[in-house]
Amino acid sequence: MMDDFNKTYGPFLPEPQHQPEQRQEQKPEKKPGKFKRFLSTVLAGVIGSAVTLGAVYYTDFIPSGSDQGIKAADTESISNASANLVPAATTSNGETGSIADMVEKASKAIVGIVNIQENSNPFTGNSGSVESGSGSGVVFKKAGDFAYIVTNNHVIENATKVEVSFFDGEKATAQVVGADALTDLAVIKVDAKYASQALDFADSSTLRPGDEVFAIGNPLGLDLSRTVTQGIVSAIDRSIDVSTSAGQWELDVIQTDAAINPGNSGGALINTAGQVIGINSLKISNSGVEGLGFAIPSNDVVPIVNELIEKGKVERPYLGVSLADLEEIHASYLENLPDGVKAGTMVTYVQPGFGADKAGIKQQDVIVEINGEKVENSSALRKYLYSNVEAGEKITLTFYRDGKKETADVILTGDSIVH
Question: Are residues 77 and 147 in the same domain?
Answer without folding.
Answer: yes
